[in-house]
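Aim 2 progress update. The chain analyzed this quarter is reproduced below.
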Amino acid sequence: MASSYSLLLLLLPLLTVVLSMQATSQISPLVSLPGCRNKCGNITVPYPFGFQNEPNCFRERFGLFCNESYNPPRLFIPGYNQEVTEISPKGELHISVTAKRSCYNSSGGYINGTYMDTYIPLIGSPYLFSVGNSFFAVGCPNQGYFVDAEGYYVSGCVSACRPAEFSLGSTNGSCTGVGCCQSSIPNGLDFYEPYLQNFRSSRASGDPIIFVNPTNCSYVFLADSNRFHFNKSYLTRIDDFKVQVSIDWAVRNVGNCSYARRNMTDYACRSENHVCYDSDNGPGYLCKCSNGYQGNPYITGGCEDINECELDYLCYGDCVNTIGSYICTCRQGTEGDALMKNGCHKKDNFTLVLKIITGASVGVFLVGFASFWLYLGMKKRRLIRTRQQFFEQNGGVLLRQQMSYFKTTTFKIYTKEELEKATNKFSEERVLGRGGHGIVYKGILDDGTVAAIKKSKLTEEQETKEFAKEMLILAQINHKNVVKLLGCCLEVEVPILVYEYISNGTLYHYIHKNNINAPIPLHERLRIAAESADALAYMHSSASPPILHGDVKTANILLDDNFVAKVSDFGSSKLAPNDEAEIATLVQGTCGYLDPEYLLTCQLTDKSDVYSFAVIILELLTRKKALYFEGPEENRSLASSFRVAKKEGRFIEILDGQVRDEMKQEVLEEIGDLVVHCLNMNREERPTMREVADTLEKARRLQKQSSNEENHIEETESLLVDELPLIWNQGGDNFN
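Predicted structure tokens:
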């Protein structure tokens, strides 16, 4: 029995750590510095926060303003005029923000005074926008986006409704593009300025009329995803409303805990019994009390020992509180486990008790062991059954049959384990990029092939029904300028796609992210445009059935080691409908590239890709982004800027200087006319992608021919100059 008691004492430290972690949930409210207020109305304000009119009561940059003219008083972040509604000691607070809106009358005209400007600068503060927020755009139609402090596009989306019925397809609580859309935001964001794309006021002569609900408003705003829920009533709303935005706070004067400890004079964690941990959003760190303590770790002596013995459910025997922990033993005359209710019992015959304990222990062990193996077996069978269900749900059986019928050898169905091994369990170190449809990882397959492995986001149920058919068709694409689909994994909820790996990045980075002063040869620009157009033309006209890309943009054109263009990312691709009256599924396009007529019809066609590709041609010629912020707000679309410049006869002014110097006039006119036709608001009057590809190839050859003729003339003139002295000397004259 003595040995059993000794074993219990050995286990007590481990048990006390676990129970002390539970006890910390009984924490009293965090406090401020002695003599300082810690309340504003109904909101608790813990140190390092404090009030600006009490200069010694808060840490630098953590001062807040309590406006007592309200009843009850309201709390604000000084300088930003943002009302604080909640402060969490875990590094989060919530602010109340008015959604930006733009309102229109029954004829689609803009109502003065309703375009509210709402931006939030957090630069230089301890605050960053939490990734728990999403960017929302509400209205029919409505294109919203927001930019950072330097004016660069951060995120955005498009919402639309069919004009026949104003809110057809929209659902309460659903924000998937019909009446309401949303997009995620990145880590480390410290500035937010929203914009609305005004489809109504920008209508030109001959453009389609976009349906407008009488006296309705469009809204764009940033909001906590868990606190905003879309309601169809927003589509007819004409007033202001506020949303809750989640803000991450941390001590950000240094990058992390390691650096902070080196400068102990300014170390924010003041209490002796604390734990420092790094912020997971941007640089900085936070503090918390150690297990077994409670209080405010930012105050000297702020973390106090928890008296676990006052929490009588933790101990059913004699309890002795210790610093940071406690000891719980059975009362005198009893033995057993005092941490369990009815765990202590009277001492009895030593041998009998020992036999009972031994027999019970062996029995419990055997039952537990058998239960453990039974659990593992059931879990394994359940996992196999789940994978098989996903495989069948994603069309795996049909895909295998079709692969056997067509005798496809280049396309492979991978297992989940193969792709986890290839990506080191989808490690963050293997991430190549993140997009609206998923995350792309770099993987090394068992045969040594380097591949790009795309783990997609959740798809709608109806999108999985034709998945197997679409995969086999996409796998048959064999074009030098299209990224090859190598295979897929179907035994997961959302299929994982495996593409060939393209090493030289995207056309977007080549044009915009590399050294902006570094020249890009004109013949390179024309070649990349012609190759990309030829790939899309192949998808439209040579694939059976035709394939519509749906998200044509420079970020979806990759460049290999020799800068050969490769069209990629078929996450938005749709097979062309057999019935022309069939309406394609609403897809997520990209602001700046989206076909305006799509907002009216919600129908994706091959001419939608033509419109988007025209924007790519303009990006190559101007080195400007599809959405840029150098001019007035109404002229920040590259497509709109081109239309205005072309109409006013100053198209050459928006071109890149290198293009103006090198491009021949006839080539410039040829490409300018091509872009005009591609951007036609009536999709029926746009050329096909095959006509676009042929025109670009013709322009490229014409430019090359003109350049060769100029080079030949220059070489001839150089040779004549070199030979002149010899000719004149032979004639008897001397130039020396």
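The first strand starts at residue 39 and ends at 40. The two ends are 122 Å apart (CA to CA). These observations will guide the mutagenesis experiments scheduled for the next reporting period.
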